[in-house]
């Protein structure tokens, strides 16, 4: 008889190096976005951005069961998904800065980063825009028998778009290998889910499309990892789609233009106390996987990578005005 392993799922599923890498990516997301925010404040980045500070566990844990041959589609709040799927921070910053070395050669900016080599089919400025794209990628994987799975990240606001219902219905009918991951941060712009959505949990809507629906604490790395891993394995086995709802919270406003008057200071601070990075760090140290010195080294390495990324972006050449339409599909076809 063996003793029952009572450790959280992620600590049973993944080895120490994988877990430390996950923590590193969570730090990298946080520091990347803080670096981007600072660069915007100093006038180095123009336009706008949508930060996911406070949602790092959802992004990284959801990508744990995926390989480069699997797909993700992302959202306007997608920097964490990019890093979770293995994006190069230098090229992400270059894209932010509108430089030629960026993922989209500086043409896309914050909301349109894609890295097909890692299976990242791109962020999307259209609310719910990634839902049909992920469904199409899953259809391709099934028809070509590649074994790939598509994970579609979307926010709570997108669950009231027609594309949500159409995509889930189609995926269920055809048993497509896709996992729909709703990052429910409680607000679509300034409108709370209580005012916009008729069900208590968005995952409850899965029942209408004959697929499993699971709601978990989106700030608990292990809880997210378990829910998404189960859904990915189900999809890979040919049993069709699933809906996973990660309950989380964005610490910043909707975008840089958001004055944040619809939330109380107490509400925001109560969620900051649920910091997913600190929670995961505590789990790893509690179970003897991570020492304090290793934790400090991980945080410092992430900080250095971000600083190097900003320096790379500043040194990268700007696109030539004579090639303004190059890499822009619609303009190139005109």
Task: Give the gist of this structure.
The chain has helices spanning 9-13, 16-41, 56-63, 79-84, 89-96, 130-144, 162-173, 193-196, 221-236, 265-272, 276-286, 292-315, 329-333; strands spanning 71-73, 150-155, 178-184, 187-188, 191-192, 213-217, 242-247.
What would you note in describing this structure?
With 334 residues, this protein is of the alpha/beta class. 44% of the residues lie in helices and 9% in strands. The protein contains 13 helices and 7 strands. Strand 4 and strand 5 form a beta hairpin. The protein is globular, with a radius of gyration of 19 Å. The mean pLDDT is 95.
Topology:
Elements: H1 9-13, H2 16-41, H3 56-63, E1 71-73, H4 79-84, H5 89-96, H6 130-144, E2 150-155, H7 162-173, E3 178-184, E4 187-188, E5 191-192, H8 193-196, E6 213-217, H9 221-236, E7 242-247, H10 265-272, H11 276-286, H12 292-315, H13 329-333
Parallel strand pairs: 1-2, 2-3, 3-7, 6-7
Antiparallel strand pairs: 4-5
